[in-house]
Amino acid sequence: MSTAASNSPIQFVVRPSEDRGGDNHGWLKTFHTFSFAGYQDPKWSSFGSLRVLNEDRVEPKTGFGTHSHKEFEIFSYLVSGELEHKDSMGNTEVLKRGDLQMTSAGTGIRHSEHSHGGKQVHFLQIWSVPSTRGLTPKYFTRHFTDQEKQDKLVRIVAPIGAPGVTEAREAEGPAPVHSPLTLFATIISPSKSVVHTLGSKKVHIHVVQTSGYNTGKSSGASIRLNGSTSISEGDAVFGTGEPGDKIEIENTGDIPAEVLVFDLD
Length: 265
Known about the structure:
Layout: E1 2-4, E2 11-15, E3 21-24, E4 28-32, E5 50-58, E6 63-69, E7 73-80, E8 83-87, E9 92-95, E10 99-104, E11 109-115, E12 121-128, E13 138-143, H1 146-149, E14 154-159, E15 175-177, E16 181-188, E17 193-197, E18 202-207, E19 222-225, E20 229-232, E21 236-240, E22 246-251, E23 257-264
Parallel strand pairs: 14-15
Antiparallel strand pairs: 1-2, 2-21, 3-4, 4-5, 5-12, 6-11, 7-10, 7-12, 8-9, 8-11, 10-13, 14-16, 16-23, 17-22, 18-21, 18-23, 19-20, 19-22
Domain Pirin N-terminal: 18-127
Keywords: Iron, Metal-binding
Cofactor: Fe cation
């Protein structure tokens, strides 16, 4: 962990990819940004309502068997491959690149997730703490193309009641969440940049590890924040500022950078 000097009013703390928890289980290669399962670090237990951010790769014909969840908002961001989801609400779906699946676990659900087809599936599993307990479980899916995200920040998850958010199972616009969390996704071309304006006081930025599984020092796509703080694939930044503060996210490498930006209370 390091605090990066910056001309920005936003204070950035860098978390290098190699400092994440996780393991190679053979069927599952996983990284944990926050304490999860056998990885426990009190310095990294949550950030705002964000509780889990796991970057998972599941081998073909394997996956997570049926298990229970309650009182979490659980969403999956598909990077590559196909993920088959089944749950106790009767939902069965195969998710592909560009899909965003949200399960509001509420009072409790059971589900399974398996690699579908003959290729490894790479996805980010994200949990947030709901603002209200005892909710009725619900399931939502959304789809966002690479073209939509190219050199633009696209809002893919947003709080219920926010503009453009609908509670339909499938719809245009962001998936609804019962947490003070807004998630944006972008794919930034080399030498291009996007600008994020803080809607809250906390921001978390994660560069997806699209160039392949790497447990060492980060490599691949690289970005620079507000002209000074540089990170690469698997790295993350935690920032604090004020609503209205701006972050320029510039691709300083020679390949596209897939980036997630969490705006958090």
